[in-house]
Amino acid sequence: ETVAACPICESGGNGHHLYIKEEGGKVLAYCQKCNAKLPDVLKALGLKGRKVMDEAPTIIEEYDHEYKNPDGSVAYYKHRTKYSDGSKDFRFGYVDENDKAVFKKPDNCNNLYNLDLMEQASADTRLYIVEGEKCADAMVKHGLLATTSNTGAQKKVKLSETDTKYLNKFKEIVLIPDNDDKGMDYTEAWPVTLNVLKLNEIWEKCPYKGDVADYFAQGGDPQKIADYKF
Fold first, then answer.
1. Which of 25, 119, 143, 167 has the fewest CB atoms within 10 Å, counting from its CB?
2. Angle at 66 between CA 176 and CA 147, to 5 degrees
């Protein structure tokens, strides 16, 4: 067994709470200070579990999305990492009442993004549901109220009572799926009445797997979304 400084909570080698050992042909790691496990440690080091050797892809994009309570306080975050081979990793975390980092979603948490913006908006505002936080951020940046679920495209979206309350607040809900098969599944996942705006209706050259963030990145006009008539 090896004891080392945790790359997540003990930068600069200040402390040694990370325990690493081999058991049953597997490498195990656990930090007694921040509860990080092997996948968290590998991500902090810029490595992936299945590709730890020289062929490991490089990180090309990495950032956190904050999931907030309706009052604007941060409930938890979702850490997103995209690699040069096109793969992505997602990791949840929050800070508990003892100011300790915990690498998972809080128990019984809300699942919708931008609940604070949904609280502030009037019921007459058109609410858009998109796939993923990056797309929701792009929508909000262009003046459109948008949310997504913390699990991305699923055949059934899990909602808390608070999530359901805020979805039911809005008179008009429009879902903009990604341009792929999972996107079509996503249109059936929500237990609310909604309209579906397919990207190829407003973006003639929308590629397969294209999303609304790509639409804006290619110079797409937000007014085409806002003015779309069903």
1. 25
2. 20
Beta strand extents in 5-144 (DSSP E only): 18-23, 26-31, 59-68, 74-83, 88-95, 101-102, 127-130
Q: What pLDDT, in 10s, does the model give residues 21-71?
A: 777 667 788 887 788 888 888 877 766 555 444 456 788 888 889 999 999
Question: What do you get for the CA distance between the two ends of the chain, in Å?
Answer: 63
CA–CA separation, 206 and 186 (whole Å): 18
> What pLDDT digit, counting tens, does each position of 202-222 carry?
999 999 999 999 999 999 999
Query: What mean pLDDT is reported for the chain?
Result: 87
| Distance of alpha carbon 153 from alpha carbon 178, whole angstroms | 9
Cβ atoms < 10 Å from Cβ of 56:
18
